[in-house]
Amino acid sequence: xxxxxxxxxERILKAVISNxxxxxxxxxxxxxxxxxxxxxxxxxxACYTEKQVFHENVEPDLITGTVEEIMRSxxxxxxxxxxxxxxxxxxxxxxxxxxxxxxxxASKTDEAIAGNNRKKKYLLEENTSIPPLVDLGVxxxxxxxxxxMYDKYRQINRFVEIADNVVDSLKLSSINILxxxxxxxxxxxxxYYYLTEIKKMKVSITGLDLKADVIxxxxxxAEKYRYDGLSFEIxxxxxxxxxxxxxxxxxxxxxxxxxxxxxxxAVSWNAKAIISVPCCQHELNGQIETENFSVLTDYGLxxxxxxxxxxxxxxxxxxxxxxxKVQMLEFVDFEHSPKNxxxxxxxxxxxxxxxxxxxxxxxxxxxxFNFSPTLYEFCLLYTSDAADDL
Length: 390
What we know:
Elements: H1 2-7, E1 14-20, E2 29-37, E3 40-48, E4 53-58, H2 63-74, E5 76-82, E6 86-92, E7 98-104, H3 110-114, H4 131-136, H5 150-170, E8 174-180, H6 186-198, E9 202-209, H7 212-225, E10 230-234, E11 248-255, H8 258-268, E12 273-279, H9 300-321, E13 324-330, E14 341-347, H10 352-369, H11 374-389
Parallel strand pairs: 8-9, 8-11, 9-10, 11-12
Antiparallel strand pairs: 1-2, 1-5, 2-3, 3-4, 5-6, 6-7, 12-14, 13-14
C-alpha cells in the first residue's frame, strides 16, 4: 500500500491493474485514465470481465484509496502506471514479495498517454498557408481543417512524418527524389512543400505517370505554386532511365507488379532510401500452390489476403538481401483503408551473412507456396550481372 501511495503521489495519467491471483476472479484487468469529464478532471475506471466492461468515475483525491481497495480485494499482482515523466511497475510475486520499478520516459502529451482531448502536434500545422492542402480540400483558404477531412489530414501528416524520418537518417543537405506512378500528386506537392519550406532543404522531385492530362495539370500546379524544383513527366516505370540516380524513390499505390518494377529500379540505381505503399498484390494469388498449408488457399478471401501479405514479406526480405534496412509500417488506420502497409527501406552497410539470410528466408517461403515474384527474378538477374562485372 505504501508503494501505491508513492505512485499516486504523482499526477498519474494512465494505469493498468492486471495479473489476477485467481483465474476465476470477477475482473480480468482494470484500466484507469485521467480524463476531462464535465469540465473537470476525473479518473475513469474500466473493469473488464471475460465479456463485459464496467465503468465508474472517481475524483482524483480518492484514486489512491480506490486502487488500494482494488488491489487488496481482487488480489491483483501487477500495477503499471504512467505520469508525464516516469513509468512505474509494481509487481507482487506468487510468494507475496513486492517490488517497484521506476523508469524515466520521454515526455509525452497528455493526449498521447491518456487521450484527454489535447491536440496532437503535427508536422503540417493548422492555420498555415499550404496551397496543396487548400486545393485538396483539406484546409480552408484561411488554413483551418475542413471537419470532414480530418482523417485525410492525419494520413497526410503520417506520410510526411515517415518521409521526414527517412530524410533525417540520410543526413543530406539536398535531396533528389523520384515519385513513380505519382497520379494527382497531392502527397508529392505536400512533401516538396515540407522539405523546402519547413526543413529549408534544396530539393528536386520528379513525378512520373502514364496519364498525359494528369501530368499537364501537375506541371501547371507546380508553376502556380512556384515550386521550381518539382516537375512531372509522362513515362512508364518499366524501363525508365534517369540522368542522375535519385537519392530516394517513392511509390504510392503502384498496382501489382508496378511496385516491383519501381523497387527494382530503386535497387539498380542504388537509391539511398525507398518509401513504397503497395497496392493490388495479385501476382502471387495466381501462383499459390501448397500441400502443407492448403488451409490458407481453401477460402478465397483468406487466400487473397495471405498472398498480399506474402508478397510484401518477400519484397521486404529481397530489399534486405540487396542491402537495405527494412521496416513494415502502418500508413493509415486499417478502418480507413485495408491497403495500409508501407515499406520503408534505407540503404545500410550490412554483412554478406545478413543479406544471404534474408534471401534464404524469402526463398523458403517461395518454395513452400510455389511463388515466383517479379522482384525476385529481377534482383536475381541484377545480382548475377553485378557479380559478372566484378
